[in-house]
Amino acid sequence: MYITVVAGLIFLTVAYFAFGQAAVSRNEVQGAADAAALAAAHDARDQLGLTLNEGIADPESWGDLLNGQAYSISEVCEAAQRFAANNGADAQRCEQSAESELRFTVKVRAREPVGDSVVPGTSGTHATATATAELQSRCDFDLVYPGDGADTDPAPIELDCDGEDVVVDPSIDDPLPRLDILFTVRLVE
To answer: Left, alpha or beta for 24 (phi > 0: left; psi -120 to 50: alpha)?
Structure first.
């Protein structure tokens, strides 16, 4: 009887270790998914910043730009893959959400399997995880043209970014504020 109890306790210890090992693997791959989704949203923000800077003299296009309609999804997904790889995973899927053009979902798979254990079928199993990040515009603006509305250079653009007044003056070099003032990036799922 003593041998049976000891054998049972050893088996339970090994089983708990196997489940703990799987939980650690799952947490690591979730971190990779989170990093990849955030990288996708950050890359979209960087691309939008470049486009805003190039189109600074045409503030009528800013509404579309601030709502995220000026980035390459393939470049966004390349950034997601790089961050997944840096965290020991591969991006299996990277897509723009149907709910919002500024929401990116990334599914990753761990490069290393969970490992050998007493649980049958786990030796070749790879942990997977999914994360979604969103890029949100912080700013609202109204276009104001000087004078009688004739075709002139636009006046400085006044933005309300989460209650903070931000002025963008197209007549100066480097007119944009930091991108984190214009946009916020966060995990949503």
So the answer is: alpha
At residue 184, the 3 state secondary structure works out as strand
What does the alpha-carbon distance between residue 148 and residue 30 come to, in Å, rounded to a whole number? 56
3-state secondary structure 30-98: HHHHHHHHHHHHHHHHHHHHHHHHHCCCCHHHHHHHHCCCCCCHHHHHHHHHHHHHHCCEEEEEEEECC
Distance linking the first and last C-alpha atoms of the chain: 50
Radius of gyration of the chain, Cα coordinates, nearest whole angstrom: 24
* Domain range annotation of the chain: 2-136
Place of tokens 């004078």: 147
For 49-72, how does the pLDDT look when each residue is reduced to its tens digit (9 = 90+)?
Answer: 887 777 776 666 666 666 656 788
Q: pTM score, two decimals?
A: 0.76
Count CB atoms within 10 A of the CB of residue 15: 13
